[in-house]
C-alpha cells in the first residue's frame, strides 16, 4: 500500500471541481437544485424521494459512462463476473463498474442501506471523473489502482426506500446487509454475491459510504455534516490484533488525512463516528469489518486475504425525513472530496506519513466503551 512512497508536497486543489459534483448531484432527469446559502444538514427534511437516483437511473448512468468515458470505464453485472449467486433477493442484477489499470485494487461501495441514497450519486461522480479527467492526479490514480465501484449495493432496499433487503424465501424477513457478512450469516443473496466478488478482487483497501441521522458535535453543539468511521475501533478489543496492528495504524491515518484536507471546505464539519453518545463500534458482522478480519466463508477465501477499510457517514437519511433537498449538492460534494483526498493521499504516500495518534484530535465524546455484536464492553476492559 505504498508505505515507502515519498509524499508529495501538500496539495491545495481537489480532484473534482465543485461544479462537476453539483452537476452529478442533480436528478438524472431534472435540473440541479440551488445550494447557495443552504442549511446543511437541513433539520426540516421533507425529502422528495422522487428526485433520488433509482435503480433504472443507475443503469442508464452507468451505461452512459461506459460509452462516453475517455479512460475505459467497464460496467458489468455479477452474473457477467461469474459469481455463483448473481442477483438481489428480488431478482435485480447487481452492478459493478471498474476503471483504471493499476496493480492494486480498491473497493468503493455505497447504498448498502437503501434509505441512504447519496453514496450512489457520490460514487457516480467519482467514477465519471476517473473515467474522463486527464489531470495528473487522475492519471496517477488510474495508473496506481484498479477501482471496483459498487454504487448501489442494495437495489431492492433502494427501490423500497428502506434500510434492509427482504428475503424472498417466504419469510419476508428483513436483513441488514451491513450485518450479514459473518460466521453463521449470509442470509441474503446480495451478501453471498458481493462477498464472492470481494474474494475475486482481493482489494488493497475499501471505503463504504453511508448516511446517519442528524447529529451535533460533542462539546460545541454544532451541526455535524460528516462523521469519520472505523467499524473495528482503533485501540479497541479487535483491531490492534489484526495484521500486527497495521490496520489499527493505517485506518486512523486515512481519516486523519481526510480530516485535515476537508477542514478547508467551509461547509464541512466533521467528527468521529460513535453510537450511544460515547461508544466506539467494534462489530464483526459488518462488511468492512469482515474485510479487515479476512473472513473465509464457504472456503472462498482460503488464503485469508484481508484489507483495511473505513467508512463515511453523511448526516441525514430519507427514512427520518432529515435529508433536505437544499443540502443535496453539498452532501454529495463532501463525500466526493473526502474520497478524492483519501485516494490521492494513498497513491502519493501522504496518508501513510500521517500521525495516527492525531485520530484523538478529531472531535468526539470521551469514550466510555465499545459497542460489539454481543453488547457493550467498558472502555476499561
From TrEMBL:
GO biological process: proteolysis
Signal peptide bounds: 1-30
Name of this protein: Tat (Twin-arginine translocation) pathway signal sequence
Cofactor(s) the protein requires to work: Zn(2+)
SUPFAM superfamilies listed in its UniProt record: Zn-dependent exopeptidases
Gene Ontology CC, one term: extracellular space
Keywords assigned by UniProt, alphabetized: Glycoprotein, Hydrolase, Protease, Secreted, Signal, Virulence
Peptidase M14 domain ranges (all copies): 51-381
Subcellular location as annotated: Secreted
Amino acid at each position: 500500500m505504498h508505505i515507502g512512497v515519498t509524499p508529495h508536497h501538500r496539495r491545495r486543489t481537489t480532484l473534482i471541481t465543485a461544479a462537476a459534483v453539483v452537476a452529478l448531484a442533480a436528478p438524472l432527469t431534472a435540473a440541479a437544485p440551488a445550494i447557495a446559502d443552504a442549511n446543511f444538514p437541513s433539520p426540516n427534511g421533507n425529502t422528495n424521494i422522487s428526485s433520488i437516483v433509482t435503480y433504472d437511473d443507475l443503469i442508464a448512468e452507468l451505461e452512459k459512462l461506459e460509452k462516453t468515458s475517455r479512460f475505459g470505464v467497464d460496467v458489468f453485472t455479477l452474473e457477467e463476473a461469474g459469481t455463483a449467486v448473481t442477483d438481489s433477493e428480488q431478482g435485480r442484477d447487481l452492478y459493478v463498474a471498474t476503471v483504471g489499470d493499476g496493480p492494486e485494487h480498491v473497493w468503493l461501495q455505497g447504498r448498502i442501506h437503501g434509505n441512504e441514497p447519496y453514496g450512489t450519486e457520490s460514487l457516480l461522480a467519482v467514477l465519471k471523473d476517473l473515467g474522463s479527467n486527464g489531470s495528473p492526479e487522475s492519471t496517477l490514480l488510474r495508473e496506481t489502482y484498479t477501482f471496483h465501484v459498487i454504487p448501489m449495493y442494495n437495489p431492492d432496499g433502494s427501490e423500497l426506500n428502506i434500510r434492509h433487503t427482504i428475503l424472498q424465501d417466504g419469510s419476508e424477513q428483513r436483513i441488514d446487509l451491513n450485518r450479514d457478512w459473518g460466521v453463521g450469516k449470509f442470509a441474503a443473496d446480495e451478501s453471498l454475491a458481493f462477498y464472492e466478488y470481494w474474494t475475486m478482487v482481493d482489494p488493497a483497501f475499501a471505503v463504504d459510504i453511508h448516511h446517519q441521522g442528524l447529529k451535533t458535535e460533542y462539546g460545541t453543539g454544532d451541526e455535524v455534516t460528516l462523521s469519520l468511521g472505523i467499524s473495528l475501533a482503533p485501540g479497541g478489543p479487535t483491531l490492534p490484533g489484526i495484521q500486527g496492528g497495521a490496520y489499527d495504524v493505517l485506518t486512523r491515518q486515512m481519516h486523519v488525512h481526510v480530516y485535515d484536507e476537508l477542514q478547508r471546505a467551509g461547509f464541512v464539519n466533521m467528527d468521529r463516528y460513535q453510537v450511544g453518545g460515547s461508544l466506539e463500534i467494534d462489530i464483526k458482522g459488518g462488511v468492512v469489518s469482515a474485510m479487515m478480519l479476512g473472513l473465509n466463508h464457504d472456503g472462498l477465501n482460503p488464503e485469508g486475504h484481508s484489507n483495511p477499510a473505513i467508512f463515511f457517514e453523511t448526516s441525514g437519511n430519507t427514512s427520518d425525513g432529515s435529508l433536505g433537498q437544499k443540502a443535496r449538492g453539498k452532501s454529495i460534494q463532501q463525500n466526493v472530496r473526502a474520497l478524492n483526498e483519501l485516494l490521492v493521499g494513498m497513491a502519493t504516500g501522504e496518508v501513510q506519513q500521517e500521525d495516527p495518534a492525531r485520530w484523538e484530535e478529531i472531535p468526539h465524546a470521551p469514550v466510555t466503551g465499545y459497542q460489539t455484536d454481543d453488547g457493550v464492553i467498558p472502555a476499561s476492559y
